[in-house]
Amino acid sequence: MSRLSDASRRSAMIDIRPIGYVIGLLVAVLGMTMLLPMLVDMIEGQGHWYVFAESGIITFVAGALTALACQNGNRDGLTLQQTFLLTSGVWATLPIFGALPFMLGETQASFTDAYFEAMSGVTTTGSTVFVGLDDMAQGLLLWRGILQWLGGIGIIVVAMVFLPELRVGGMQVFRSEAFETMGKILPRATAIASQISVIYVGLTLACLMTYLLLGMGTFDATVHALTTVSTGGFSTRDASFGAFAGGMEYAATVFMILAALPFVRYVQLLHGNKTAIFRDVQVRGFMATIGVLVLVSSLALLHLFPHHWEQALRESLFNIVSIISGTGYASVDYMQWGSFLITLFFFIGLIGGCAGSTACSVKIFRYQILLASIGAQIRRIHAPHAVFSPRYEGRPLGEEVLGSVMSFFVFFVVSLGVFSVLLALTGLDFITALSGAATALANIGPGLGDIIGPAGNFAPLNDSAKWILSIAMFCGRLELMVVYAMLTVQFWRG
């Protein structure tokens, strides 16, 4: 009897070898990418290159050994539990090694600050604890950009492959769009990543060339191209995009919008479907939302300040797109724009871009499904004997999708409240605590107030607040439900 019980316990255990193998490979790749900032520092002659050499060796060896130790695991397919653990394990592990250059380099950051910065980078949040960016070693500035760029492409693959399969937060409505590659999750991820990578690199190069043509320096253009297309928002300047004026803001706005659109539509466009992007309900809703918000903001600015109409339009357009896409660049301190626009910017950050993009937050499709559900419910009230079914892109929405979306909204609001209270317990004022929780959970970047607003950063916060925000960034990037599902007893029972 004891032998049978032992065997059943072993069979019920989760095989972590496939998880460790994939995470090990990704960690090893992360170590190899450290060669790029190392070469930049060597060329600049700043004597900082050895930091990336040491960090790269540690990271590559750790990843390679982990992959070798787990290579005999079954990688033909992942169970539901393994997929949940893999998606969360990647985003928890990579910032640990991504933090090494910050701890060993000239910033000499504590593990708390370094992990916060790396988590903010990998999740493309864009919040920072570093000051003096204008004088920081170029290798470290490039490394921050690389972390966000790698996180951006990782987010697309997770959003297009893993989350629809896991039926997380209504993402299952996009299962039919995750290409026609049949098979298990890992083979499908490989097929999709190869096609997405070409588009992602192409957008990055186009953004880089545009910045260069508009007069931005080569290094600044490279880093900002990485953080624009990833909608990350890390900058090489303390003033963020305020250091660049005029046409540069329009260029950044275009690429932030392009990065916030569904990448699957770009693939379909390349395959000959010329109307794929414009027929997408998400895209039309996203663009319409931006148009309305920019109009309202521009009119408010013209009313409050004696701005030239072009300046009001440009500043409204750039900063609204930056916040709604989750990029987090700031060209001005919009805390000076008055209480109406400050409040508007808070809620803009809770909208987000399209699913299957590098954008973050709640996502526009969930609001569209919510409105469709409300509309159907109102029609039922007026005609109780009729049958009304909420629809999305012409397709009726099942109870599973509706329930998943509603659950996401509930979890998001509850999480926002919990993280806000936890931050307030660390001594932060109401505005800083609430906006800090929102910007971390929605992966936006800047918060509100004098401390973490567009003119500040997260350096003054204590370690407890930074760890709370790091956890919030992690939960928000994984669409909440993945993390909370693993906190249940049923998940571990299989």
TrEMBL record:
GO terms for molecular function: metal ion binding; potassium:chloride symporter activity. This is Trk system potassium uptake protein. InterPro entries: Cat_transpt, TrkH. The gene is trkI_1. Keywords: Cell inner membrane, Cell membrane, Ion transport, Membrane, Metal-binding, Potassium, Potassium transport, Transmembrane, Transmembrane helix, Transport. It holds the Pfam family TrkH. Belongs to the TrkH potassium transport family. It is found in: Cell inner membrane; Cell membrane. The keyword Ion transport applies. K(+) binds at T124, T125, G232, T327, N443. The keyword Transmembrane applies. Low-affinity potassium transport system. Interacts with Trk system potassium uptake protein TrkA. PANTHER family: TRK SYSTEM POTASSIUM UPTAKE PROTEIN, TRK SYSTEM POTASSIUM UPTAKE PROTEIN TRKG-RELATED. GO terms for cellular component: plasma membrane. It is a multi-pass membrane protein.
